[in-house]
Amino acid sequence: MSERKPYAFLRRLGPRVAPYRAALFWAAILILLGSAIGLAFPLVVRELLDAAFLADDRGLLNRVAVFLIGLFFFQAVVNFAQSYLTASVSERVVADLRMDLFRRLIRQPPGFFSRRRVGELSSRLASDAGLIQGILRFGIPELVRQITFLAGAVILVTITHPRLTLVTFVAIPPTVLAGWLLGRRVRRISTGIQDRLADAVSRAEQVFSQVRTVQSFTREAWEEELFAEAVEDTRSRGLKRAVARALLTGVVTFTAFGAIVLVLWEGGRLVLDGQLTPGTLVAFLLYAVTIAGAVTSLAGFWSNLQEASGAARRIFELLDHPRELAEPERPRSLSRPVEGRVRYEEVRFRYGPDLPEVLHGIDLELEPGETVALVGASGAGKSTVASLLPRFYDVTAGAVRIDGVDVREVPLEELRSTIGLVPQEPLLFAGTIRDNLRYGNPDATDPEIEAAAREARAHQFIAELPHGYNALVGERGVTLSAGQRQRMAIARVLLKAPSLLILDEASSALDAESESLVQDALDRLMAGRTTLVIAHRLSTILRADRILVLQEGRIVDQGTHRELLARNDLYGRLYRAQFEMAVDAVAAPTGGGAGPDDF
For residue 397, is pLDDT > 90? Predict the structure, then answer.
């Protein structure tokens, strides 16, 4: 959308409004009808005053008064119906817009969110969409109404008295100029406010999600200061916007009502000279006020349109952002049942066109039901290799295949439905334990949920909670321990029943007792499934059929634990650095447990 055309976004909204054109048609009819009633009011007032002061007709005076009451009641009914129709359309259009934006965002890969702030995206869904809703619900109907008032009043005052009409039009040029100049300033300031507010919300969300870290480092005052700076900047910009709006209102009000004073002065002279009746003068004044009010409202609408334009630009930028992982043009389905043979063929990968390559010709094959562990120093590429299987990213070169089918040729939903992921730090949704477990299979019955929990060694602690499976876990599952969250994550994957598994250091952050329970659950989960393990703890390594050693994005060796320990210096160093203490701890109670060379 062009910066010079703040109304351009209205064209983008056209297709979204089209399904509700019938409601909009009747709303427009009601607006015109209500406006016509408003334009008729000064004419009725003229008859009322002239009847009272010139004709001395009390009967006519009473009839006109009763007619006015009926007219205003009918206008109130019309305004109610019109307001309801426009409100219903605006609610539906903005709901559709929010849904489309959410649908677009949720289907972007993880890399998209690593480059964006979650608070900023939330602000687009909430406040920016709200500004557009305001324009649709109040701005557009008021625009139609005021244009009708302006056009009708101009015609009627011209017919009533051309000489006074020229006096009325004195206010229009300065009002239009002020609206154009100050409206542009309001748009620039409003865009800055929305951006800065998004910064503040994003920072607050980060702080709330990492509140333990903040408090452990006693950085509350520092975070308060950062947030206060953002809030103060927003407040300062808001005051500047208020000044621009107030100046616009002041200029418009002065010029509009200054013209009314001129009309009153000139009209009074005409009444004194006998060239105009008092009723006609009052009717003319009412039309002049209508014109002034319409011009003022149109100037305000221009200001609001500038604000909504900035909000719409940000929303449509996200809607226009292409899906970074496109669905295949000619999709292929995986064979059923999925055998689980996985093949990485000379895979190369980089996170961006200007970033260095992180995987260099990975060649790997997993047989159905085989468990393969990836080990290596931090940054060796273990997580990247695993992320390519469910297409969280696409390979730069080469291919990843499941049962011979390139994952890029499989519809994303079908592909990911065959893969289960147990991350190192599973996050749960605010809600009940039952809802979180059912996330793996929305159709799962209560007996199936309990069976999965038992298999994942989670049923016992769930049953001990005050409300059992209906217990609330809190935001991100903070009311549960790390081991409990991990076992729930395993139960959730069990309900999903995938053919392939990715274990991303699934027991690396647990104590010995929790690790034992989790590892038992993992063993049950891995049984009969092809599993790719990002390894960190000794227990997972020992259960792997093969261990692959990664170094700087390359597979430098593979084999069993004993084979690698005997011949690979890098694996030996990793083993001694990460695992030797754990083996000694296991051997210590008996005094004669297994040593490093026994694995």
Answer: yes
pLDDT at 588: 47
Strand order in the sheet with 546-551: 419-422, 500-504, 530-534, 371-376, 546-551, 554-559
The structure tokens listed for 301 are 């609408």
Task: Render pLDDT for 450-496 as a digit per residue (tens, 0 to 9).
Answer: 999 988 888 888 998 888 999 888 666 667 888 888 888 888 888 88
Please give the domain boundaries of the chain with CATH numbers for all domains. Answer: 10-320 (1.20.1560.10)
Q: Which of 27-31, 344-348, 372-376 is most confident? A: 344-348
- Token pair listed for 374: 């990836």
Half-sphere exposure of 530 (CA within 13 A, CB side): 18
Position 571 scores a pLDDT of: 77
User: What gap in Å lies between CA 157 and CA 27, rounded to an integer?
Assistant: 27
Residue 187 CA, chain-centre distance (Å), reads: 22
- CA distance readout (Å), 126 to 131, 194, 259, 322, 594: 9, 11, 42, 22, 59
DSSP state of 535: -
Q: Using CA atoms, how far apart are residues 20 and 196, in angstroms rounded to an integer?
A: 34
Compute the C-alpha angle 551/557/562, nearest 5°: 120
Number of DSSP helices (H) and strands (E) in the chain, helices first? 23, 10
Residue 573 CA to residue 595 CA, distance in Å, equals 16
Report whether 488 contacts 428 (CB < 8 A): yes
Average pLDDT over residues 407-430: 87
End-to-end CA distance of the chain: 64
What Rg, from alpha-carbon coordinates, does the chain have?
Answer: 36
